[in-house]
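Lab meeting minutes (informal)
Scribe: AK
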Amino acid sequence: MSENRAERLCAFMKGNSFVWLVLILSLAVISACSNSENTNSVQIASAQADEVAASLYKKHCLSCHAADLSGLVGPSLKQVGTKLTEEQIIAVMNEGAKGMPSFTKMLSKEEMEAVAGWLSKNE
């Protein structure tokens, strides 16, 4: 009985090859569009996260590290992503370092992660 069923399926597919081709191409197009929308959403979310992080940096870090990250009282943060990982940047923000205060009372964990992620992109 299963051979009969398989034969009928093969006959159906052969007789409707154009329909199958259209179906497969439609699925491929839908899949490609879906991935494009997801990529755009991720890019928008990333841009928004960068804006939030830059705003937090301006509010809490700029006075010591300068608008261009070149450093004033604090060290330069240019290319900090090549020197420290995101986790290490978060640790410095949590613990403070060499005259820099801890930011645990000023920034939430999520805000620190946002700023550290943004800074770690500076390679």
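Next up, CB showed the second protein from the same session:
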Amino acid sequence: MRSCLSAASSAGTASPAPSSPKREETEPARGGGGDSDYEVHSDEELPFRCFICRNSFTSPVVTKCKHYFCEKCALENYKKSTRCFICNTQTNGMFNPAKELEAKLARRRSDDEDDDDDDDDD
């Protein structure tokens, strides 16, 4: 039996080395079009409308993948799917209050009211 193995290996017919496990591509292709287009990276980029209902936020929440929804919309979507509505990342039902978004919306409202007050001085 030993001679069969040595003959096979010397003839160049040894079995190939096991291939490395295949990895799933985690970064989107260059040039845009990936899920990162919907991620919020700075205060200036915070959205003003819910991606699900397309209305102004009511009780905004943020997912661990940094997407913003109305609390009601997020919970209703969670009943259908445990994944993020935008990027399909598993949320595990974790929706945190979006305090920075609420603060920005409050600032925007106060700025709008200040602008309205200025128009009344005519």
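CB comment: DSSP finds three helices and three strands in the chain.
No objections, moving on.
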